[in-house]
What does this fold into?
Amino acid sequence: MIRLFNIDDSKANPLWLAFFRCSVSLICLLHFIAIQPDFDTIFSQNAIVPPDLLHAYNTFRFQVFPSVYDIDHFVAHILPVSYGQVLLTVRILYPLSLTALLIGFVPRLSALLSLLLQLVVISSMDVYNYGVDVFTTMALFYCIICPVGNMYSIQNYLSKKPILLRGHAKYLQVIRGHICMAYFFSGFEKLLGPNWRNGESIWKMVHGYNHYDFFNLDFLYTTPFFLVTGWATIMLEMLYPVFINISKTRTAWLWATVSFHVLIALFMGLYFFSAVMIVFNLTCYYVPFIKVAVELKKRNVREAVLAG
Amino acid sequence: MLLYNTPLLVYGKLTGTGVGYGFFAPNVKSSGLFIGDCDGQQIMPKFNSFESAMRFSTLSSTISDDMFIQTSANDTTKALIDKCSDAIYKAIAVKMYNQNNCVQDTLYLSYNIIMFPTLKQYASGMHDYSLFKTKELRIIKKAND
It folds into this structure.
C-alpha cells in the first residue's frame, strides 16, 4: 500500500522523465524571461542596488557560488572583459542551456550548465531571491542526476541504439522523498506559529500579499473560514508524506495539493513558485501512474531482449 | 559550526537542500514599501514586470529583516551591516529619483511596514491599513551633481 519504497520500474510510467525535463526547463526559461524587462534595473552596474554594493552586503550572508560580479573580478585578471560583457554572456548562455535541456540536447551537460548558470544568476541577486529559486535549483539538480534525456529528446532521436530506461523508478523515489520532506517541514514550521493556528496568517496573507481586489474575502471575517484554512494548510503539508503515498488517498491528496498551489498563485501572485511545485507533484504522483502506453510496453520488451 | 563548513554549504546550495522549507512560517511577515518624495508627490520604485516587483519586495523584506536580526552579530559586524544597509537605501533613493526625473535638491526615502488590522481588530471596526515607518533617509544633492 505504501508506495514510498516501491522501486519497481514496471509500475511507474517513465514518461515522468520527459515531463520533468520539459516542464522544469520551460518554467526556468519563462521565469528568466519574466525579469527581462527589468534586467538592467536588477543586474547592471546601473542597477537599483549596484553589484559592488550587493557584493559587499552578501559577505555577511554565507554566499557560496560566485556572482557575475565575482566572475568579472576573476576573469578581469586574465582577459580584458568588462562587467557588462560577463553579464551579457550569462544572459545569453542561461536561456540557451535551458533550451538545450528542453529539447534534450546533451541533456545531462545542458542540465549541469543550466544549474551552474542559475546559481550564478541567483547569487548575483541574492537578496531578491525567494522560495521558487530553491526549488528551481533542486529541480535542475535532479535533471542532472536522473536520466531525463532518455525519452522524447534529441539525444534519444539521434541515438542509433535504444536508450535503456531501467532503474528510472529509483530516481523517482529520491525526488518523492525530498518533496515529502519539504512538505512535512513546511507544515511543521507553520504548526509552531500561533498565527497559523488561529487563522491570522491566512488573513494577513490575503491582505498583505493579495494583489487582486476581485478576490476580496473580508466578508468572511465573522466565519471560521480563516481558522479552518490555516489548519487545512498545516494538515495538508504535514500529512502529505503519508496520504500521498497511500494508493487510496493519493489522487485526492494530489489534487488538493495542486489546488492549494493554484490558490497560492492567484492570491499571492507566486505564479512561478506554484508552477514549480505543481510540476514536482505531477512528476512524482501523477505522470508515473498514467497507464503505460502500448508503445512503451513494446519498447520495454525490446530493451529487456537487448539487455539479455 | 558543522553546517557552515564549505563542502556542506556548496552541497546545500547545489542541491537546494541547504535551506529550511518553512515558507511563511512560523508566522507570515508583514510586507513593506519604499516611499520617496518627489516634488511633493509620493513615489515608489518602478518595475516593468510583476515578477521583478515581486523580487524587489523580497529585497525590501530581507534588508528590513537584517535590521532586526542584528542582536546575534558582534558589534563590528553589526556596524558593517548597518553601513551596507544605509548604502543600499541610498542607492534605492537615487534610482527612484532618476526614474521619476525629480529635480529637488533633497531626497527623502522611507521604508514602511504595511499594518493591516488583525481579525479581532477588523471585527471591532478597524478596517484601514496603516504604515509603520521603520527607516527614513534624507539625502542632499551636492552642487556639482
Observations:
- Chain A is about 65% helix and 0% strand.
